[in-house]
């Protein structure tokens, strides 16, 4: 993240995708690790601390790269990304979802759109985005495309 120069929120979304990709790279190890962490209290506590460190890392990154940003929005965004990542991981582990890093990316970018602070230049000029989708278009596709369009404006 430190070497990234793009939109800080997108960088964090990319980091969440990457982390999930690493977990999914070896499904047997991921499932065994999850089972072990669930049954050993000290490992579970360590996992909770590790998750908290990721959240703090994201907050610190946002505060450093968007110093004029609202610290509460930075904390909320970081917590939301970590929560969505963990929920997706648990869904995959339980077999309830065929999650991929890309589908997690759609989910966290949807969250990012809700936390992004308005850019004063954009707010002053105002933009209208008109989009047409087929009635049967998958919701994830629509949301991902809208997020892309919003990032371009």
TL;DR?
This protein is mainly α and 153 residues long. The longest helix has 25 residues.
What structural class do you assign from the helix and strand content? mainly alpha
Instruction: Please provide the count of β strands.
Output: 0
Instruction: Provide mean pLDDT, rounded.
Output: 84
What sequence of helices (H) and strands (E) makes up the elements? HHHHHHH
Oligomeric state, counting identical vs distinct chains? single chain
Shape: flat
- End-to-end gap: 23 Å
Give the key terms.
single chain, mainly alpha, 153 residues
Structure description:
- This protein has seven helices and no strands.
- It is mainly α and 153 residues long.
- Helix 3 packs across helix 4 (71-94).
- The chain is flat, with a radius of gyration of 17 Å.
- The model is unreliable at 120-124 (pLDDT under 50).
Secondary structure layout plus pairing:
Blueprint: H1 8-24, H2 27-39, H3 41-65, H4 71-94, H5 101-115, H6 120-125, H7 139-152
């Amino acid at each position: 993240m430190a070497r990234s120069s793009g939109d800080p929120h997108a960088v964090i979304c990319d980091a969440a995708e990457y982390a999930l990709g690493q977990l999914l790279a070896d499904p047997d190890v991921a499932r065994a690790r999850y089972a072990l962490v669930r049954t050993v209290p000290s490992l579970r506590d360590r996992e909770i601390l590790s998750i908290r460190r990721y959240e703090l890392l994201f907050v610190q990154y946002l505060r450093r790269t968007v110093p004029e940003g609202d610290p509460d929005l930075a904390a909320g965004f970081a917590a939301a990304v970590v929560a969505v990542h963990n929920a997706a991981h648990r869904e995959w582990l339980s077999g309830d979802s065929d999650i991929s890093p890309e589908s997690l990316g759609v989910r966290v970018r949807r969250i990012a759109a809700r936390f992004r602070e308005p850019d004063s230049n954009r707010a002053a000029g105002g933009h209208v985005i008109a989009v047409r989708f087929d009635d049967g278009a998958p919701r994830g596709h629509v949301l991902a495309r809208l997020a892309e369009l919003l990032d371009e404006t």
